[in-house]
Amino acid sequence: MEDRYDQPRRSRRSQRKRRRRLRPGFVLNATCLIIILICFCIGGVQAILAHNETKAQEEAEAAALAEQEEAAQKAEEEAAALAETEYDFTVAMMGDVNLDDTWYNMTYLVEQENGIYDCIGESLLERMQNADLFCVNSEFAFTDGGTALDGKAYTFRAKTSNISIYETMGVDLVTLANNHVYDYDAEGLTDTLDTLDGAGIAHVGAGENLEEACQPYYVDFNGYTVAFVNASCAENIRYTPQATEDSAGILLCYETDTFVQVIQNAKENADFVVACVHWGTEYSYEANDTQRTTAQEYIDAGADVIVGTHSHCLQGIEYYDGKPIFYNLGTCWFNEKTLETFLLEIHFTGNAEEENVTFTVTPAIQSGCVTRFTESDEEWNQVVDLIEAYSYDVTIGSDGTVYPSDEAPVIVDDSTDDSTETEAETETEDSTLEEDTTTEDAVDETTDDAGSTTEDGGTDDETAAG
Known about the structure:
There is one protein chain. 41% of the residues lie in helices and 22% in strands. The chain has helices spanning 2-20, 24-84, 104-109, 122-130, 163-169, 185-199, 210-214, 257-268, 289-301, 377-389, 418-450; strands at residues 87-97, 133-138, 141-142, 157-158, 173-175, 202-204, 206-207, 217-221, 224-232, 249-250, 272-278, 305-309, 317-320, 323-326, 331-333, 339-350, 355-367, 370-373, 394-396, 402-404. The strands form 5 sheets. Strands 1, 2, 5, 6, 15, 16, 17 and 18 form an 8-stranded mixed sheet that branches. Strands 8-9-11-12-14-13 form a 6-stranded mixed sheet, covered by helices on one side. A two-stranded parallel sheet has the order 3-4. α9 (289-301) links the parallel β11 (272-278) and β12 (305-309).
């Protein structure tokens, strides 16, 4: 009985055991499936990683490209901004001009068919007219009235209509701090200022009061500012007064304090300061001690170049603290004398990040009331040799560029043998001695003709014009 009833139980128990027992094929299949799943997962992870890596690389490349594009755009913008500040301009300057209707050069002019065109050489006149700014020392009064100063031997006055001569010459700026602009008293000076203003010609160094006389003239060239200041210490007998708070006159610099302050103020408002000084000894080729010491003082105050007038003949050039001093430009168009002169050109190039300034002299000669550029190598060398003879460690290049001697370019001619060089040096020394002798004679003759020289190196205005 028990056996009968126990048999099914065993059968069911056996079935359960059989169910629990896994077949080998099933295990293998399961294992393969797991492996496949693992491989799939690994592949998926690798695919995800690869995708992410590709995406990251693409993003990095895109970022790098964007950065490059941004840098290129920034560079273009900076270049464009820099281009907007680029400048390239020339300031041209010459010395003394006299348009007095009774003076030698003006009586010559009225006899010429073409007026000033027959008095200034064509190529020189073109350079005057084409300069971005052309400046001369205006040594007379533009007035149809006024009263000549009592006791002064030479007083110069030009009709106000003569302003047309300056317009033809291309004059943009005149320096007025000199010993003749006040020759026809305060009325003559005021008329001069009004005449220049009416023609649109700027002026510096004189005014209806001291504030005006001290005011620099500023000119802007695409963001680069040049300032001009002007003062005088040319008279031994002081006929020309300094302006005051309520009276017309010029700016004097016998005492340098005021002019030094003017230069300092100009430098605070400009990139480059041109200090024009009327000084020195008339018809003397050599700068005196006062010129040399005060020039250094003006450069220390902020002047970038010193430009002198008054002597009517050339004086030398000197560098101080890297800044040039042109002690005297000589005459531009003043009288009938034969005198060496030159056109000074200051060439400015650069932009907001850098600047370059070069100084060039182009030799010229005034003779018989006509001023022109030199017309031969002999004349060119005559003027350059004269400048260098009275300069201090300055060299003038073959193109007229002015250098401190230790910075001048060296020109080597390999085709010249030693014997030829020795002969050339001997000839140069001989010619230099002859020119020096001629120059000294010229100084003596001119000084005698111009007037007596006082002990302090100045010229008495009663015996000399200029």
